[in-house]
Amino acid sequence: MSEVPDVQPSVSVGDYVKAVWETAGSGAASTKDVAERLSVSPASVSNMFVRLQEMGLVRHERYHGASLTERGRAEAMRLLRRHRLIETFLLEHLGYSWQDVHREAERLEHAVSDDFTERLAQYLGHPEHDPHGDPIPTAEGTLEPEQSKPLKDARTGERVRISRVAQGDNAVLAYLGERGLVPGSVLKVREVRDVDGVVVVEDESGEAHSLGEPLARSIFVRAEQVSRTGR
Amino acid sequence: MSEVPDVQPSVSVGDYVKAVWETAGSGAASTKDVAERLSVSPASVSNMFVRLQEMGLVRHERYHGASLTERGRAEAMRLLRRHRLIETFLLEHLGYSWQDVHREAERLEHAVSDDFTERLAQYLGHPEHDPHGDPIPTAEGTLEPEQSKPLKDARTGERVRISRVAQGDNAVLAYLGERGLVPGSVLKVREVRDVDGVVVVEDESGEAHSLGEPLARSIFVRAEQVSRTGR
DNA sequence: ACTGAAATTTAGCTTCAGCTAACATTATAA
DNA sequence: TTATAATGTTAGCTGAAGCTAAATTTCAGT
User: Fold this and answer.
1) Distance (Å) from the C-alpha of residue B98 to the closest C-alpha of chain A?
2) How large is the ipTM?
C-alpha cells in the first residue's frame, strides 16, 4: 500500500508558534532551538520570525529571539488542545502505541477543524488530562500549570508517575520501553546522586533501575498522590 | 476561537488522482471537468496532467484528457477508502451532520497515515459500506461495483434509498434537507416523466415530492431490497 | 578590552502549485 | 467546409517555504 508518498508537509505557521511556546520556557525562544525542534535551518526560522511578527503572533527583537504575544499564546493553546485530544483518542480508542502516537497526532492536528476538535472532546468525555497525565487546555485557552518535571529534579523518597519522555531518540524509547519505564508507570525514587546525576528508581515490582543523567533529564514525572484524583 | 486561519491547503497529487477517477466515467477525464471539481484553473490541471504522467499515475494524450493507470487507480482507491472510513467515523461517532461530513473528511484524508486508516477500519468493525450505502474499497484496492444511479434513471414503481446527493449547491442541500430527502431515506418512485425530466416520488410518510430535472440528476439512489442485507 | 566562536540575519536561489494572458487545437453548426 | 465557439496548452509570473553561503552581531574566555 501507499505507493504514492503523501507530500511531506512543510512546516506551517502553527508549528512555529507551537515550537516557540515549547522552547521559550518563560522568555524568548532562540532561532537555533526552534530550528532544531522543527528540523529546519536557522535561516528559515529567522525569516519566519519576521513574518510571525507581522501577523502579530510574536514579538521579535533582532538577534534576541522571539516570544509569543497574547494572540500567539492563544494560538499555541488551540493547537496544544488539538494535539492532546487527538493523542488521547489514538491511545485510548485506536490502540496506538505510545511511540507512534505523537507522530500521528502531529500530522492530524494540522488537518482538523475546531468543530472536529470540540466534537472529539465531547466524544472523549471532555477529558482534562491526556493519557500521559498532561493537562489539556480548555477551549478558551486556559492551561492548568504543568505538574511534571524532569526525573533528575525529583527528591529522594518521592513517589512519581512517568508522564512523558522527551521525544527524539528512538533507541532511548526502546530501551525504556523494554524495562517498562513508560508513561503511566509509578516509580519510587531511591537516590538522586548529585555527583554524577544518576537517579536510582524502583518500579512497581520492586525492581531497581539506574538511570544516567541524560535519561534522568528526558524522563518527565509528576508527583504521585496516594489517592489518585483529577483524572 | 480560530484566530489564525489554517493555511488553506493547496490541492495535492492525491486530489487530482481522485478527481480524475471521479470524473472519468470509464474513459478520460477532461481538463475542464477536473478543473471545475477542484476549483482550479484549467491551466493548472493541464500542467499537473503532465506531472502525473511522469509519475506514472495517468495516461495523458494532449487535447484529449487523462485516464488513470493501474497505479493511479490503486492510489484513488486508497484515498477513497480513507475518505469513506473517515466519513463513517464522523457520522456515526462524532455526530456530524450530513452536510458537514464531506468537507471535514476531505481535509482529514490528506493527513492520516495508512496505519491510522487500518486502525480506524478495525475500530469501526471493518465496514464494507459507508453510512450512505456506498462501498468502501478494501485495503487491497478492490471496489464493489457502485450500485447507485441518478434518481432520473430510476424506473416507475421502484423502491429506492437515497445514497448521496451530488455536493455543490448548498441551497439544494438545504432544500432537500428540509423535506427529509437525505441519504438513507427510502422513496417510492411514482412517475418519471420523459417530457420534462420531472420525477415524482413518495416518501415513507406517504408525502409526494415533485423533483425537477436538475434535482433528479443530483440525487443518487440504490435499489432498495425488501430485506436489507450487506450493510 | 579583545578576539574567536557561536548564533543570527541577509542575499539570492529552488521548487511547488497556483494564476492570467496569449496561443493552439478540436468541436459545432451554418 | 469553413467560421466561430469551446476547450486545452504554453509562457511567464507570483507567493510560500525552504535552502546555502556570506555577512553581521553577540557572547565567552583570556
Assistant:
1) 14
2) 0.84
The answer to whether A3 faces chain B, any CB pair under 8 Å, is yes
The separation, in Å, between residue B52 CA and nucleotide C16 C1' comes to 14
Q: Rounded to a whole number, what is the distance in Å from the CA of A165 to chain B's nearest CA?
A: 23
A100 touches chain B (CB under 8 A): yes
A64 at B interface, C-beta within 8 A = no
Could you report the per-residue pLDDT of A26-69, keeping only the tens digit for each?
789 999 999 999 999 999 999 999 999 999 999 999 999 999 99
- Take residue A211 and report the three cell numbers written for it: 538511570
pTM for the predicted model, two decimal places: 0.85
The CATH code for residues A13-68 is 1.10.10.10
A49 touches strand C (CB under 7 A): yes
Smallest Cα distance from A6 to chain B, Å? 8
Q: Which string of DSSP letters, residue by residue, matches B44-110?
A: HHHHHHHHHHHTTSEEE-TTS-EEE-HHHHHHHHHHHHHHHHHHHHHHHTS---HHHHHHHHHHHTT
Please list, in sequence order, all residues whose beta carbon lies within 8 angstroms of the beta carbon of residue B74, skipping any fewer than 6 positions away: A3, B141
Domain map (residue ranges) of chain B: 13-68, 148-223
User: How high is the pLDDT of residue B1?
Assistant: 56
At residue B5, the pLDDT reads 65
A63: nearest nucleotide, CA–C1' criterion: C8
Asked if A13-68 and A149-223 have one fold, the answer is no
pLDDT of residue A231: 42
B69 CB near a chain A CB, below 8 Å?
A: no
Is a pLDDT exceeding 50 seen at residue A228? no
Superfamily of segment(s) A149-223: Ferrous iron transport protein A (FeoA) (2.30.30.90)
Nearest to A7 among B6, B13, B74 (CB): B13
Position B228 pLDDT exceeds 60: no
Q: Over pLDDT 90: what percentage of chain A?
A: 64
Q: Does the B148-223 domain belong in CATH 2.30.30.90? A: yes
Percent pLDDT > 70 in chain A is 92
Strand C at less than 7 A from CB of A44: no
| Per-residue model confidence (pLDDT) at position B42 | 98
CA B195 vs CA A15, A221, B155, B205: distances in Å: 58, 75, 15, 28
Q: Counting every residue, how long is chain B?
A: 231
Chain A residues with beta carbon closer than 8 angstroms to that of B57? 4
